[in-house]
Amino acid sequence: MHVKSKIKNIEDLRLEIVRLNQLKKEQEEYLVDQYQLLKHKVEAPARFISNLTSSIPGVDFVKGIFSAFGSGGGAKSGAANQSDWLARALQLGLPLVLNRTFLKNSGWLKKAIVLLASDSAVAQVTQGKVSSLMSKLAKFVRPKKSKKKHKDVAPLDDLEDNGMVNFGIPPDSETY
What pLDDT is recorded for position 148? Predict the structure, then answer.
């Protein structure tokens, strides 16, 4: 490293500024290179797992289902990525349920037709539609709030009018 002992005039000052700027640029380039090397080393396990799972069929579909949970509901590109987590879970679970119950003894053609129709039906189901349906159902089932009127007890307004209820200070109390 080159260090000058004294700056005697304006020309020496300008040369020192140029030298320091050059030194700054070299150090920044070195740090960027070191950062890229570190980043490459840290990402190595993720690259290994990605290469390993890319050869297994069906992993991308499962990743797509679970990526909807952590996405926060942002807009995505592609028709498959636009559905919410509920629709994705139904796309995965409905064929399994139908194959185990209704289509147990059916042939492959009938299963394929029903599963294709169920997939298109599930595509219409969204979390918003289900929640609006549930809120309408809850509104219908929930009892309406009404005031219960007791025949034996007079309302508080009637008692105040008759002078029976007084929450003030009694006239014979000591208030001094």
Answer: 64
Helix (H, G, I), strand (E, B) or coil at 19: helix
Res 109: pLDDT: 84
Contact call for residues 159 and 165 (beta carbons, < 8 A): yes
3-state secondary structure 57-109: CCHHHHHHHHHHHHCCCCCCCCHHHHCCHHHHHHHHHHHHHHHHCCCCCCCHH
Measured CA to CA, the distance from residue 20 to residue 132 in angstroms comes to: 65
Cβ-contact 104, 97 below 8 angstroms: no
pLDDT digits (tens, 9 = 90+) for 99-155: 888 888 888 888 888 878 877 777 777 777 778 888 888 888 887 776 666 666 656
The single-letter DSSP state of residue 151 is S
The count of other CB atoms within 10 Å of the CB of residue 123 is 15
